[in-house]
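Table S2 (text version). Query chain:
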Amino acid sequence: MFHRTLFFCLLLTLSGCDRISAVLVSKPTKITQAFPLSIELGIAQAHLLSEDSHGTAERPSLSDAFDQLVVVRALACAGTAPISRFDTVSEVQGKIQNQDCFKKQDRQLADWVGIQRVGIALRRPALRPLTELPRQTTVVGARNTVDLITAMSANIVVTKGDYGLFTVLDLAGDKPIQSFQAPMNANGPAKLSPNGRLLSVPVSNRSLNLFDTESGNLLWSTDTYNNVVAWIPEVGALVLNEGSSSNGVLLDLQTGIGETYAATDKNLSWSQSIPSSANKLLVGGTYSAWLIDHTRRADGRLVTTVN
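Corresponding structure-token output:
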């Protein structure tokens, strides 16, 4: 113990407090301190952790998963930079030149966070339970409506008004739940998730925004996809159109990984659930339709079967 204390005292004399502190901090942490996450990403992460209550022994918490991705970010962008355990944060900054790498990694992390937030919202119960309504009723709050979007399994409708103003309405309520503004060039067909909690809004056929209808918050904005073809809450997935190729993609909302969809037509535009099977969808485009079954295996992998 005496020799260890003497060693640290000598280090303190020779290198100062910063040098000793650097020894006690891991390499990934020093790199992250030298190149912090963007403010926007930090805010999105805080929202994600406040929304997530699904961490179990079988499925690690999103907090742990995010921390692991931050470590990957640090090590990937550091590359072969000669960072030692004695380097301070300022020295680490001087040794890593590829700062564009951190921006790219932050965009990928932002996508992961957004996808996880969408997955959480899609798993939640209906925003308003689906109940029997009077044969005739007045919906309060719908003005200058140019489009009306309905939820399949909730008493929720969303109206689109002038200048891209969306208003979320409870069919059995006496006042609007929320209103929010979409981008002015959001001219594609908006779609509402079955539970009424998510609204997908295509933007100029080049990108896609997904909003939380209860809060009006933007959960995920992506330039990779431009349209939601189908919501599949039973297995935690979305069918999307990829913007660059117009191919269908099955996006796993648990892993954030997208794979080529079983329906091979380009520009898929519609889907219809099959009453006898919640996981089975009729999916199609302009000229054809596909009957596809979706399951999640015991190992967590998504599987599609064309019937």
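Notes on Table S2: Residues 99-123 form the longest helix (25 residues). Residues 22 and 88 are 5 Å apart (CA to CA).
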